[in-house]
Amino acid sequence: MKIKTKLVISFCIILFVPIVLSCVVVFGFQTIQVKAIEKAYGIHDAGAYSLTNSIQLLNRMTESDFASAQRIALVTPAKLLDESYLDKLNEQLEDKFSYIIVRNEEDEIIYNGGTDTDKLIESLPRYGETDVNSNISTYLDGDQEILIKQLDFKCDGRCNSLYIITSTVNLVPEIKKLVVDALVAIFLILILTACVLIVWVYRSMITPIKKLREAAESIKEGNLDFAIESNGDDEIGELCTSFEEMRKRLKDSAEEKLNNETESRALISNIAHDLKTPITAVKGYSEGLLDGVANTPEKRDKYIRTIYNKANEMDMLINELTLYSKIDTNKIPYNFQKININNYFQDCVEDIGLDLEEKNIGLAYYNYVDEDTIIIADTEQLRRVINNIVGNSVKYMDKPNGFINIRLKDVGDFIQVEIEDNGRGIAQKDLPYIFDRFYRADASRNSATGGSGIGLSIVKKIIEDHGGKIWATSKEGTGTVMYFVIRKYQEVKNE
């Protein structure tokens, strides 16, 4: 859920949830208080409207008392002039914020249950001015806002009026309780809603941000061995995912750097070890020349030739090291051009044949490709590939009658080159790793034959940069076949 959506939902929750819950709570309290008013004041069907209309409620609160007075006025009107009865009735009305006033036809006050001023008494309606059969109060809006119920009756031929005076400035306790409870409930609802929103926001936003901060602290300290879990699909979840990807890349980069450092140390160690042997030989034969050990032309020639060969070995090792550094940074200088595969390999085979002849190794060349076949390649780097493979075959040749076969085949869109020897071969367990950097199938043998362990990795890199592929098959004691393919050049005709 996006942050924008969460904000909209939060707004709706803040706006509507408190309103709905407040309405439900107020309705519940209202129902309870209406029943309480009906029970306390003897009102039937008070209704919710009474709670909002205090005048109506106060009017209805004295209905039963006024009806009782009406019945007495019809049966025993003299009772309404009895002070003891009036005291009792007035006491009942006190809980209803009301009291009684009784006045005769001469405007004399017979009974006054309140503390009203003469001004109020003077404003009371006269005998016969109201409908004695109605319990509807008359509202007087003066200094004192009051409701008046008037009951006119006769006793012993004299006219009298009984007034039930109700003050409207007072608020019924049940209404007060309703207001207080409603305010408290609304306050609690707002607090609860805020807490729920805070928890939701904290869990959905603050918690992931806290994890990101802890992750950043771990990365700062160099610790990359952890994982950032992201369960959300919002912007923060996407940030967590991106942060986790960054952590993985940093870890991979750190591991790659460590591996490169390890490989570099291995390379330096291998180069140093492999240089030691020819250097020792060069020193030994040079001292032999200086000391006069080579006292014949044949010996001197042998010593000089050995020194020359050992110097070539060192040069090859240094060249491999230089090329390796370029491979490691993807900075091999390529000069791609169109070349005729037949002419190119014919020249290569002639050069290789001269070297192999000196080493008493036979060479056979088989060409099954059309004469006009063209490829796109770097001539220098492709020759390096061929020389490295052939050099490897020569290095591990253990047969007195060694031979190397070079075959050129057309395999559809590619030219396949096969270089076969009858050397000692490669163990099946080592075969999948021979193109890995610094891998040596037999370290002890390699110490004698020389080599940095990066020759075939260089070959693989060059072939792959030409858009090709390289692989090998081998059998111990029988020999090895190296295969690589290079795509043919094809003209694209415009229609």
Structure description:
The chain has helices spanning 3-41, 49-52, 54-61, 63-75, 83-94, 118-122, 173-220, 235-291, 297-328, 341-358, 379-395, 443-449, 455-465; strands at 98-104, 109-112, 138-141, 145-155, 158-167, 337-340, 362-368, 374-377, 403-411, 414-421, 469-475, 479-487. The protein is of the alpha+beta class and 495 residues long. Among the domains are: 3-45 and 176-207, no CATH class; 75-170, Beta-Lactamase (2-Layer Sandwich), CATH 3.30.450; 336-487, Histidine kinase-like ATPase, C-terminal domain (Heat Shock Protein 90), CATH 3.30.565. The protein has a 5-stranded antiparallel β-sheet, with helices on one face. Strands 7-9-10-12-11 form a 5-stranded mixed β-sheet, with helices on one face. Helix 1 runs antiparallel to helix 7 (173-220), helix 10 packs parallel to helix 11 (379-395) and helix 11 packs antiparallel against helix 13. The longest helix is centred in the middle third of the chain and has 57 residues, at 235-291. The model is unreliable at 443-450 (pLDDT under 50).
